[in-house]
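Running co-folding for hypoxanthine.
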Amino acid sequence: MTQIDFIRSLPKAELHLHIEGSLEPEMMFELAERNQISLPFDSVDAVREAYQFSNLQDFLDIYYQGMSVLITEQDFFDLTLAYLMKAKSDGVRHVEIFFDPQGHVERGVAFETVVNGIHRALIEGEVKHDISFGLIMCFLRHLSEADAFETLVQAKPYRDKIIGIGLDSSEQGNPPEKFQHVYAEAKKQGYHLVAHAGEEGSADYVLQALDLLKIERIDHGNSILDDAALTQRVADAGIALTVCPLSNLKLCVVDTAENHPLPKMLAKGLKVTLNADDPSYFGGYIADNYLVMAQAFDLDRKTLVKLAKNSITASFADTSRKQDLLLELLERALA
Ligand code: HPA
Ligand code: ZN
């Protein structure tokens, strides 16, 4: 069995995936036509060629432009189902999907259109394809905390469809402390809490996300290694990091796969998971992310199984689902 087949055969959870970042150029054109929207590109190849980024902001500018083709509930359904089919072929059995409601509401698309389309596809994925799920609503950190509060209010009627709150977009200059009140309110309302921290921001941003936002998982977290005491604390507490290798490469957070901090993270006892982030923009889905690290560091099967195991135990899936997936993983590892 080839390495990629072995990776795909492992039951795993995807915990860091922006659904808008799974919009493939082909679907972008299809939806643009369906919704009579003009794109600043004349071909699928031209779109792919534009996907060269030198930092996070470069990417975000194109990412927000790309999502402009998403208008109807059916668009959000089609987008999500297409992602789930890719995930299924990579062995994903549980997904926790991020979405950016502010990126749609500010364009005049109703909150309910977005949530209902994504959620309907997630239900179909669960019923027909045995992929359990959670939906996590992210606040855009370049906007104000007041705007985030407004989004939290808009989410109220859909409380049963959304399990958690995240924080994404431009990290530098938008520290976690800016959102501490809205996170406190979200915690009161019973949401799970996560946040992007330490992607381009310093280790201090990770510390703030833990202490001020009270997050349960760290999205990215690369810069944590700059602070030995914090690294030790996060390792001891078993707080998971949702690491995204191809994203780190595409956004120049790391220069080469061989310089990725994954081995250091593992050596420090950090609970690392591997994820795709924005697969259509970064050149690969979850199995490709496992593969690029496996090849760069000659990871053995035991380590790949450990990464898959971390993804299941770090998820917000219920206990019985976690037990079922862990048992399947164990059977796979022993086969
Ligand atoms: N980082 C921050 N914000 C984002 C990302 C990311 O990788 N993807 C979509 N929004
Ligand atoms: Zn992300």
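Result summary
The chain has one domain: 3-334.
The two ends are 12 Å apart (CA to CA).
Job closed.
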